[in-house]
Amino acid sequence: MNYDIIIIGAGPGGIFTAYELTQKNKNFKIAVFETGGALSERHCPIDGKKIKSCVGCRSCAIMNGFGGAGAFSDGKYNITTEFGGTLHEHIGKEQSLELMQYVDKINLEHGGEGTRLYTTGNSKIKTLCLQNGLHLLDASVRHLGTDINYIVLENIYNELKETVDFHFHAPVSTVEKIDGGYRVTVENGSSAGEYTAEYCVISAGRSGSKWMEKVCADLNIPTCSNRVDIGVRVELPYEVFAPLTDELYESKIVYRTEKFQDLVRTFCMNPRGAVVNENTNGIVTVNGHSYEDPARRTDNTNFALLVAKHFSEPFRDSNGYGESIARLSNMLGGGVMVQRFGDLIRGQRSNSRRIEESFVIPTLSATPGDLSLVIPKRILDGIIEMIYALDKIAPGTANDDTLLYGVEVKFYNMEVETDENLETMHRGLFVIGDCGGTTHSLSQASASGVYVARYINRNRAEE
Q: How far from chain centre, in Å, is Cα 115?
């Protein structure tokens, strides 16, 4: 065997698998294979001036590379089992929370010290939400910010590279089961070749969803269809949501619509943040970032409003459904589309003049358009209903000039069948992080990596 352990993907799951393994046993031979580049190489060409929209890079620097898709997120680590995944269904709530707190401790030790931990505990906002038909989910939230998150990742990488072999720009094409372990094949780049190891940990992230489907098919690993979340990113003046964000920073609020009884939720709240493009498998969607550095803050707050769609038989391609809606937006807008809330309600398309005259200055250069031509009516009706509900606890949310960017799609990998140790039917092959459909957050993906690393270490000690 070339290695003891091969890790596929250098996102939070893969990083914390490698980190915990090196803490427990310095003699492990570990390799990490990553489709994207090292942290220092990750630069999106969009500068807002010469290049204003996605140019379709071979490997998206926002989505791929050391740190995964979370490297340039706003660095929010939600310590909770109420959302962000179902890791607790495998390892229990108590252990899930303990591991997330351990990850938080590691982040603080690697540059995150001094950042604030927010909590919904004993919050009057929770009461206010309940009084208005909204439900605030319980969580503690460590906000690192995009800038501090980068520093933390940089420090962890500098520590890991001394004992771990990192292969960047090395997309793994196949994973094969062989006698005594696994063989992975890299077809392109300077790391092209075959590599073997006793253990293989797959942590390919959300962008690795299609590849993961192929791996499961090749190895006959059972899967089941998952969900897709479809919605918009809302941008409004910081002051509108300041009563919530100043106290909670990240408020996960859920609303059940009166019309269809669908659940609509807030997601990824970024006080004084910026709206950004995101490229997943060639499809341009929208996301949001925020920074800890006051010099990089804006006058706006942005957050997503998402409606989860679960599909039953015979339809199994939930991600394909979300992709088709995103492609329609790309077709009409050449990328991300933006519309004023007032224009949407009045059934008129936003144009450049209306956007320029808006009191809310957009932080992303997007194409003015009509979201009702893109987003299915049931989903759009739910989003509109949610905006009016939020207006009761944050007056100003339903103002005419509130901006809606579309579409925002959260793709969830199909759920890969694993046991309580996140191990597949094949001994020594683990699927962790977002690519397994179990975790959907930085904190839970990182915790899953720590858990599997400790399990592997125990197994090796017993051999």
A: 21
In angstroms, rounded to a whole number, what is the distance separating the alpha carbons of residues 222 and 122? 43
Alpha-carbon gap, residue 7 to 129, rounded angstroms: 43
Alpha carbon separation from 33 to 53, 291, 341 (Å, rounded): 29, 29, 44
The predicted pLDDT at position 48 comes to 66
**Whole-angstrom Cα distance, residue 215 to residue 213?**
6
Q: How many CB atoms lie within 10 A of CB 307?
A: 24
Which burial class, exposed, middle or buried, applies to 57 when counting CB atoms under 10 A from its CB (0-12, 13-18, 19+)? middle
Distance CA 272, CA 238 (A): 6
Q: List phi, psi (to 5°) of 249.
A: 60, -70
DSSP one-letter string for 346-367: HT----HHHHHHSSSPPSS--E
Nearest to 326 by CA among 364, 374, 376: 374
Label the pairing between strands 3-8 and 193-202.
Answer: parallel
Given a contact cutoff of 8 angstroms between Cβ atoms, the answer to whether 165 and 31 are in contact is yes
Contacts of 261 (CB under 8 A, 6+ apart): none
Strand segments, DSSP code E, in 238-299 are: 253-256, 263-270, 274-280, 283-289
CA distance linking residue 58 with residue 65, whole number of Å: 12
Q: What is the amino acid identity at position 433?
A: G
Task: Report whether 268 contacts 235 (CB < 8 A).
Answer: no
Q: Within 13 Å of residue 139, how many CA atoms lie on the same side as its CB?
A: 25
HSE (CB half, 13 Å, CA atoms) of 238?
A: 13
* DSSP summary character for residue 138: P
Q: Reply yes or no on whether the pLDDT at 161 is more than 70.
A: yes
The distance from CA 279 to its chain's CA centroid, rounded to whole angstroms, is 12
- For residue 122, with 0-12 CB atoms within 10 Å meaning exposed, 13-18 middle and 19 or more buried, which class applies? exposed
Q: Is the pLDDT of residue 30 over 70?
A: yes
Vertex 429 angle, CA 425 and 431, to 5°: 90
Find how far residue 357's CA is from the centre of its chain. Answer: 33
pLDDT at 122 (0 to 100): 65
